[in-house]
Amino acid sequence: MADERSMRERMLAGDLYLADDPELRALSLRAMELTDEYNATPARESVRRRELLVELLGSVGEDVDIRPPLRVDYGGGITIGAGSFANFGLVALDVAAISIGADVQIGPAVQLLTPTHPLDPELRRAKWEAAEPITIGDNVWLGGGVIVLGGVSIGDNTVVGAGAVVTRDLPANVVAVGNPARVIRALEPARD
Q1: Per-residue model confidence as pLDDT tens for the chain (192 residues)
Q2: 117 catalytic per annotation
Q3: Staple 135 to which of 33, 96, 153, 190, CB 3.0 to 4.6 Å?
Q4: Residues 101/140, Cβ–Cβ less than 8 Å
Q5: Range of the domain at 76
Q6: Does the residue 150 lie in any domain?
Q7: In this structure, what CATH number is given to the domain that contains residue 20?
Q8: Which residue intervals of 6-63 are DSSP H helices?
Q9: How far apart are the C-alpha atoms of 92 and 6, rounded to whole Å?
């Protein structure tokens, strides 16, 4: 039996989909237009910038600060918790869900990359893609230039050093560095 789901439904389920599907192209264009407006809106117009973020992303907590430029694929699949900060140049390719906890600090030029591509050359040639979600816990610090790949979860209070490439899950309360990122030390858990 043929798969009768829309490409968007397939994409959100993590199944193979075609990015040039008309519905997905329209969603991507909408996201580009909103990010262009967000990136061009002066900092002094904080109310308008907040409105644009809320319209663009799936959920935005209180006191979130994302410095432009910001780039996303679709926008609606990103949630970001209260008090989180992203420095200049965040790229969040939200083909699958991206969940960012509260009080997260994101350095400049960080990339959150959910897309994957098939290893089979014929599927790639036919433009099939897939994606896996990213989950970032509360009070995480991602240093400048960090890359987080799809399918990764980063535990609460974890620090990821500048330039690290996170290819697999990181537990809570650790420092991780390198490519691929590896844990180099444990941190004391946060006290409430």
Answers
A1: 467 888 888 998 889 999 889 999 999 999 999 999 999 999 999 999 999 999 999 899 999 999 999 999 998 989 999 999 999 999 999 999 999 999 999 999 999 999 999 999 999 999 999 999 999 999 999 999 999 999 999 999 999 999 999 999 999 999 999 999 999 999 998 776
A2: yes
A3: 153
A4: yes
A5: 7-186
A6: yes
A7: 2.160.10.10
A8: 7-12, 22-40, 46-56
A9: 23
Q: Residue 147 falls within a domain, yes or no?
A: yes
Look up residue 185 and give its two tokens.
Answer: 């030390």
- pTM score, whole prediction: 0.94
SS3 state at 188: coil
Is residue 79 within 8 A of residue 99, CB to CB? The reply is yes
46-56 and 22-40 helices cross at what angle (nearest 10)? 160
- Structural domain count of the chain: 1
The pLDDT assigned to 192 comes to 64
Catalytic residue among 117, 127, 168, 185: 117
Give the C-alpha distances (Å, rounded to integers) separating 73 from 26, 28, 70, 127, 178.
Answer: 11, 6, 11, 16, 27
CB-based contacts of 7, cutoff 8 Å, min separation 6:
17, 18, 21, 23, 24
Q: How many residues does the chain have?
A: 192
Alpha helices in 58-156 (DSSP H): 121-125
